[in-house]
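Mods, move this if it's the wrong board.
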Amino acid sequence: MCYCITVLVNVCLILIIILNNELHEPMYILLCAFCMNALYGTAGFYPKFLSDLLSPVHVISYSGCLLQAHVLYSFACSDLSILALMAYDRYLAICRPLEYHSVMSVQKVMKLASFFWLTSVFIVAVNIFLTYKLKLCSPYINRLFCVNWSIVSLACFSNETSINEIVANITILIYILHGFFIVWSYMYIIKRCASSIENRAKFLQTCVPHLISLSTFILTILIDIINNRLSSANLAKTLQNFIAMEFLVIPPLMNPLIYGLNETRNYRSIIFFLTLVCYFIIILVNVCVVLIIILNNELHEPMYILLCAFCMNSLYGTAGFYPKFLSDLLSPVHVISYSGCLLQAQVLYSFACSDLSILALMAYDRYLAICRPLEYHSVMSKKRVITLAQVLYYFACSDLSILALMTYDQYLAI
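Not the wrong board. Structure tokens:
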């Protein structure tokens, strides 16, 4: 659920920025790049971690381990680069507003974001290649995921890792300089904003969310580095695992919410964002329950069949509301054809009626299971439950269909 929500909030924010022409500005382009990088980084961790949770054996190929380390490190480095670009964007907007549009055009920002991402990928690739050249004397990593330093520590001869340490320290220095650049930018921004009420308001609106995102990212990365280099056996394993995971869980999930909602201050964009996330979560949880029931033979029982019907009806009902509502949020004109209006009413009313019918069947199922257990399996067989659910759904839909047709007939007559 955490991974799905992370994907949803980042994808939703990307879609809002792409679909809204008013947001085709440098700051929003960088925010879009930030979200895309979050999707890239979390993909390097969650699928493997989820597969490990379902498996009694936790193994990964050596090439797969190196690839995972590469993705995670390049994700972290790219995030810091994008945050540095965001800081520079804020510096130009507040301290040098007359030069802003000439220096930070949309095309230039896209090129800079692409360049910094590719640079991060290349720098990390050099570190990973040097690790690949090492001869390892152990196949075991005491981590939830592969990181470069853990692999290097498995080298047979410590004197062979000197070049790895030099390149790793150079990489760390490069991204420490990114941090100093961000601090330098904010020194000028704060100095400029302190002398003007208007600039102070601009600082609160645009810089505070960036600082929160930056602080969250740096804090989680520093905790992970300290834990990785100075890990203590005295810490509980659960705590060590949480510390190891936090930079892959907290920033990708929280930053789009903290930063994105502030930047998309137009109320329609905020409502669209929250509604789209809500709709995706509804689809996700209902589809997951349906798949679990279908794929697990142990759940092919009347109560679970009714639960499956309940979830499928939820998907049907929400499809009658959310798509039209979302399209209206993106459009200045809110219209619907008469036939479309009747269809929407049919879907929503039949959804509500069917829900009540399924709940009544569930209550009857529980009554038989508890009050008349000896008769339960003869009365509530799988086929009978499916037939009953279909009949009740048919009546709910057909009655409302007839009413809708009568209304349409009157409309044509008049």
